[in-house]
Design a protein that fits this description.
The chain has about 800 residues and is of the alpha+beta class. The longest helix is centred in the middle third of the chain and has 22 residues. Helix content is about 30%, strand content about 25%. The site of alpha-L-fucopyranose (FUC) has 11 residues, from loops.
């Protein structure tokens, strides 16, 4: 008892010291000295449901408005039941090596002609300022610490300020306009949309825009939407015209923007858009700007402030954010890394809130009626990537909208499994939308991938690994088991080795061109890895929850019959079941490296040869690519424990996308949005997750501190990262070496720690146990099959391993051993 008391006491003292050391995060604002001309220069605000892009124009301001349930179409399905009959023939054609015929048959029999409904922008709010003099002292910022976009300028002897935020507690977007001189505020407000909406001002002086989502691919648009704007002014007057609110000679004005649709769930659009929008508007309009802002800050900062990150010396930087991106590669602006990292967290807090839709391809900010790739959910990488930072960067609650989508797909996907493949369980292919379609889309080359559900299902168990929440695990167990059930039914024995494989399928969006140009295949490496993960996670969950079923025995047996990972003729990890990889292939998808990240099947300690092969494959794929591909590679290089290469990828990603000749490449827009190009939010989230992964990893049976710290990141600190096993980690380092490590345990139990330096701390025991005996077991995949006998085994990476017995709620301090 006595020793425990002492340990608690010393913990408190050190935590206090710790906070002061970790406190100075660099300036967390995006800054500009001119209004946005392009959409990718405007600044995003959002509360998960309501999004806005703020242009900051003191003459003709545009605030683009979105609501996250405004999609084209209405509930529908996209299964083609003819697939069931054609399935055996397609499989035989693949096993006979007749890939062109197999792909043709899939194209004829598996598709429905419906490739998903687009997410749609709601419209624009225009503020036309009446003042005439020239503008001076202009600035435009987005402060990530407050989630407020501010534009300020001077004109005709008055200083003007416009603040915009999207409030989660009050479910409105709020704009506050103020002038330093009495009566100097003069503007009109109006709403517009490209098509499909009308605007008017009602008798209560509320500006409305109402309309209907578009028809698409023969599905009639049935989402009714409504935006309502109410203005309150101090001083001056508020007049109305048919379609405008006119503010004259006011001192300040608050605009309350409410938006809603009739969407209730993926199979129910019986809501009342007008009533819902009006209820939020009336409630918010009773509150003062200060009151709304305080509630907004409290809500937002509860998430944002959990992680503080500092790199290098905190020097004030007066350059605009676009200049900083343009010069980032010079290497003198390390503080842009924490800003970009936190921008990823900002975007997740702003686009994914419990009870709402998960972040789509452009978050909630798409600006079109038919945005690129419909701004849908592409679930062969992009949607999963959006949620990579959710647990590790301490935003676990914001993972919930994705989990809810998986729940819903497990409902709609049962019919697809049954109707298309005669299988039980549930399936999803490579895309879905708000109506939770689960049939294949586009065409065989991209769409013949029945593994979307299998990849999404990983998130169910991963969330449990971070939180240890068995009640949650119990609630999602049927979904995980349903995914395993589908895979078990769909697996088929291939004739050459007798392995159980997924067929037909693809290695997402790539083809083994050196052999044939068709993508349709059997036993692609990523599929084998996904099946391995779904099966092992189902078995682990069943043990934790004490579940029994025949299925569990069956999948245990199937695990032994999956193809092993294979090392091919140039020492690479094979992407396909045959050794078809071309060392010159620089395709953006690196699907076979799923086993390295986000999965943990490839490890320097447990599978050193596969680790080396994965590195060979990644080197061959090259660095520069689409934004999301670079974001993935940051994580992959972090998992390969090469911080300098991971940092090189961050530098490639933080390069201006728009070139002097106007052409665009993978990189970053001036508002820090990631460029595929075009803007896709996945790359932002991927890179944020990757930065966390460079500083701490927890997938391989231990908390590995500073596993991939680049040489250039000499000094820094980060607080609040989350590790699997319910641990929260604060880290400080100096001269590229750990200085202090604080681990807070939520669940208690053994915490394993891995470090390149020897550590000391109360209760810390040196451990010689193998990595796989950590707090969460990491099952070993089968021994790799090595086609190339010269494939190298890496030198073992020297690490010090420790274990620490932890108590729930306690913090433990570790420091380097002198
Ligand atoms: C996948 C990728 C594309 C793009 C699209 C949204 O199909 O291959 O590069 O990111 O999703």
């Amino acid at each position: 008892m006595k020793s425990k008391m002492m340990s608690i006491k010393s913990t408190f003292i050190l935590i206090f010291l710790g906070i002061s050391a970790y406190a100075q995060q660099p300036d967390m604002s995006l800054r500009y000295d001119e209004p946005a001309k392009l959409w990718v220069e405007a600044l995003p605000v959002g509360n998960g449901r309501l999004g806005a892009m703020v242009y900051g124009d003191p003459d003709h301001e545009t605030i683009q408005l979105n609501e996250n349930t405004l999609w084209a179409g209405q509930p529908y399905r996209n299964d083609n039941p003819q697939a069931k009959e054609a399935l055996p023939q397609v499989r035989q054609l693949i096993f006979d090596g007749k890939y062109a015929e197999a792909q043709d048959l899939v194209n004829q029999k598996f598709f429905s002609g419906k490739s998903g409904m687009p997410y749609q922008t709601l419209g624009k709010l225009h503020l036309d300022f009446k003042n005439v003099g020239s503008v001076t002292g202009y600035s435009r910022t987005l402060d990530l610490e407050t989630a407020v976009a501010t534009t300020s300028w001077s004109r005709d002897g008055a200083d003007y300020k416009m603040e915009v935020f999207s409030s989660f507690p009050d479910q409105v977007i709020v704009i506050q306009l103020s002038a330093s001189k009495a009566g100097a505020l003069n503007f009109s407000a109006s709403l517009s949309r490209q098509e499909g909406a009308t605007s008017f001002v009602d008798a209560e002086n509320i500006l409305h825009l109402e309309g209907t989502g578009s028809d698409h691919e023969g599905i009639e648009g049935a989402i009714k939407f409504e935006a309502q704007v109410k203005a309150k002014t101090t001083g001056g007057s508020l007049l109305q015209s048919e379609k405008k609110l006119e503010v004259s000679q006011a001192d300040s004005a608050t605009l309350y923007i409410s938006m809603a649709t009739n969407f209730k769930s993926y199979n129910d659009i019986g809501g009342d858009a007008n009533a819902k929008a009006m209820a939020f508007l009336e409630s918010a309009a009773q509150k003062s700007y200060t009151y709304l802002k305080e509630a907004h800050l409290k809500d937002y900062q509860n998430y944002f402030n959990r992680v503080q990150f500092k790199l290098g010396e905190a020097k004030p930087n007066s350059a605009t954010t676009d200049e900083r991106v343009a010069h980032f590669k010079d290497g003198n602006d390390l503080a842009l890394v924490p800003l970009y990292f936190q921008f990823g967290r900002y975007l997740l807090i702003s686009s994914s809130r419990p009870g709402g839709q998960p972040a789509n391809l452009q978050g909630i900010w798409a600006n079109d009626l038919k945005p690129v790739w419909d701004s849908k959910y592409t679930i062969n990488i992009n949607t999963e990537m959006n949620y990579w930072p959710s647990e590790s960067t301490n935003l676990s609650e914001l993972h919930e909208p994705l989990i809810q989508m998986i729940r819903e797909l497990s409902e709609t996907g049962q019919e697809t499994a049954r109707e298309m493949y005669g299988a039980s369980g549930w399936v999803a292919h490579h895309n879905t939308d708000i109506w939770r379609i689960t049939g294949p889309v586009d065409a065989a080359f991209w769409g013949m991938w029945p593994m979307g559900g299998a990849w999404l299902s990983q998130h169910l168990f991963d969330k449990y690994e971070y939180t240890g929440d068995t009640q949650f695990l119990d609630s999602v167990y049927p979904i995980l088991e349903g995914s395993a059930r589908f895979l078990q039914d769909f697996l088929v024995e291939e004739p050459e080795h007798g392995w159980l494989v997924i067929a037909p399928s693809i290695s997402p969006e790539n083809a083994p061109y050196s052999d044939h140009p068709e993508s349709v295949t059997a036993g692609a490496t990523m599929d084998n890895q996904l099946v391995f993960d779904v099966f092992t996670k189902t078995l682990r969950a069943s043990k934790i929850l004490n579940k029994k079923s025949d299925l569990l025995d069956e999948i245990e047996a199937s695990l032994q019959r999956l193809p092993p990972m294979q090392i091919g003729k140039w020492g690479q990890l094979q992407e396909w079941m045959y050794d078809w990889d071309n060392p010159k292939d620089n395709h953006r998808h690196v699907s076979h490296l799923y086993g390295l990240y986000p999965s943990n099947q490839i490890s320097p300690y447990r599978t050193p040869q596969l680790f080396e092969a994965a590195k060979t494959s990644l080197v061959a794929r090259g660095d520069e690519s689409t934004g999301w591909s670079m974001g993935w590679k940051v994580n992959l290089w972090a998992r390969l424990l090469d911080g300098n290469h991971a940092y090189k990828l961050i530098q490639d990603q933080l390069t201006p996308s728009i070139q002097p000749d106007g052409k665009q490449k993978g990189g970053t827009y001036s508002n820090l949005f990631d460029a595929h190009p075009p803007f896709q939010i996945d790359g932002n989230f991927g890179c944020t997750a990757g930065i966390a992964e460079m500083l701490m990893q927890s997938h391989d049976g231990a908390i590995h501190i500073l596993p991939a710290l680049p040489d250039a990141w000499k000094t820094g600190s980060i607080t609040g990262l989350k590790a699997r096993g319910g641990f929260e980690v604060n880290l400080e380092w100096e001269a590229n070496k750990a200085k202090t490590l604080e681990i807070t345990s939520a669940l208690g139990g053994v915490c394993r720690v891995r470090s390149y330096q020897p550590l000391q701390g109360e209760g810390l025991i040196e451990s010689k146990k193998a990595a796989e005996t950590g707090f969460f077991q990491t099952p070993n995949p089968k021994e790799p099959l090595i086609t190339n006998p010269t494939a190298s085994t890496p030198d073992l990476i020297t690490v010090f391993e420790y274990e620490l017995q932890t108590e729930p709620g306690e913090t433990y301090i570790l420091t380097p051993k002198n």
